[in-house]
């Protein structure tokens, strides 16, 4: 595994070649990303590809053949190659190989980039279909931000600003599968105070026609990080272990529904890329 560093007048970041993972964001000497304690959750900000979330029975069917796949796919466990690096931007890539083709029968190149712009980081993805048939995939982000950001506070002193006056969300069952029942968050001027019950049933899945940015806020309701996105879904998550971090996760795809029984091409929110086509997406993180 290799480490790469970018720095400007506001931010200093570290990116690892394993999973092309952003693993440190510092502003004014303060760390904003989760430390990746392996006793709780070993990741910092993994890329979820070629699946987001969990498949039913950890398997999917394509052209009548069943394939096994772990939660969130395999990209986060694989070494990426450095593609280019400048003072304020870096790109890494992952290409299909014999092992990925056994689990995922598509030829691809996944490009992952990060660009600094003042107190903002733009995270960028490009997916190339290198094959001669339609490619089906999902991709998502999973950045874990320290919460609280200041010492001597609790997560339960903090707020989430949904930048919307009404938010409905969906949940998953004990097997990590999507449930169709809709719930509503009790907001105060668009903000929600985190409680011990907020993530009792795991992730909150939000359809993003309701909002295009979400912020974590300190007890005075002032944002210290904002994630902006154009993805169809966003997950908001913190573990049941009460670890001091909250994830804001733009998703182009999600886990299987609990009642799903179809093939890969029938999964909801799955991206379809034509032969030799290219998919592009990005999201932005701003730090205060």
> What would you report as the Rg, rounded to the nearest angstrom?
18 Å
Sequence of strands across the biggest β-sheet = 8-9-10-11-25-21-20-15-18
CATH architect. name: Distorted Sandwich
User: Approximately how much beta-strand content do the residues carry?
Assistant: 35-45%
Helix and strand pattern: EEEEEEEEEHEEEEEEEEEEEEEEEE
- N-to-C terminal Cα separation, in Å? 30 Å
The major β-sheet equals: 9 strands, antiparallel
Structural class based on helices, strands and sheet pairing? mainly beta
| Total count of domains | 1
**Count of alpha/pi helices:** 1
Globular, elongated, flat, extended or rod-shaped: what is the shape?
globular
The overall average pLDDT, rounded, is 97
Q: Under CATH, the topology is which?
A: Beta-galactosidase, Chain A, domain 5
CATH class: Mainly Beta
User: What's the total count of β strands?
Assistant: 25
Please give a quick description of this structure.
The chain has one domain (3-287): Distorted Sandwich (Beta-galactosidase, Chain A, domain 5), CATH 2.70.98.10.
Write up what this structure looks like:
By secondary structure, the chain is an all-beta fold. The protein has one domain (3-287): Beta-galactosidase, Chain A, domain 5, CATH 2.70.98. The protein has one helix at 98-103, and strands spanning 3-7, 12-16, 21-27, 30-31, 47-48, 59-62, 65-68, 81-85, 89-95, 108-117, 120-129, 135-137, 139-141, 144-146, 159-161, 168-169, 183-184, 191-193, 204-207, 213-217, 223-229, 233-237, 245-252, 271-273, 278-287. The chain has a nine-stranded antiparallel beta sheet, with no helix packed on it. Strands 5, 13, 14, 19, 22 and 23 form a six-stranded antiparallel beta sheet that branches. The protein has a four-stranded antiparallel beta sheet with strand order 1-2-3-4, with no helix packed on it. The longest helix has 6 residues, at 98-103. The protein is globular and about 55 Å long.
């Amino acid at each position: 595994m290799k480490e790469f560093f970018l720095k400007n007048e506001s931010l200093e970041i570290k990116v690892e070649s394993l999973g092309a993972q952003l693993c440190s964001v510092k502003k004014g000497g303060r760390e904003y990303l989760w430390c990746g304690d392996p006793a709780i959750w070993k990741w910092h900000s993994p890329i979820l590809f070629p699946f987001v979330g969990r498949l039913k029975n950890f398997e999917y069917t394509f052209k009548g053949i069943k394939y096994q796949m772990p939660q969130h796919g395999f990209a986060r466990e694989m070494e990426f190659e450095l593609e280019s690096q400048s003072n304020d931007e870096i790109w890494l890539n992952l290409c299909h190989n014999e092992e990925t083709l056994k689990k995922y029968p598509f030829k691809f190149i996944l490009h992952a980039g990060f660009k600094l712009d003042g107190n903002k980081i733009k995270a960028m993805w490009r997916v190339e279909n290198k094959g001669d048939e339609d490619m089906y995939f999902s991709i998502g982000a999973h950045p874990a931000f320290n919460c609280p950001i200041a010492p001597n506070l609790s997560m339960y002193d903090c707020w989430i600003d949904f930048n919307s006056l009404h938010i409905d969300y969906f949940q998953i069952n004990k097997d990590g599968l999507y449930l169709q029942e809709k719930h509503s968050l009790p907001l105060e001027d668009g903000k929600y105070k985190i409680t011990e019950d907020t993530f009792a049933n795991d992730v909150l899945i939000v359809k993003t026609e309701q909002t295009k940015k979400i912020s974590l806020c300190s007890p005075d309701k002032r944002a210290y990080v904002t994630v902006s996105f154009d993805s169809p879904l966003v997950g908001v998550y913190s573990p049941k272990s009460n670890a001091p971090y909250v994830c804001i996760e733009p998703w182009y795809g999600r886990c299987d529904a609990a009642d799903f029984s179809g093939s890969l091409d029938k999964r909801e929110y799955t991206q379809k890329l034509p032969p030799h086509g290219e998919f592009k997406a990005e999201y932005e993180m701003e730090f205060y």
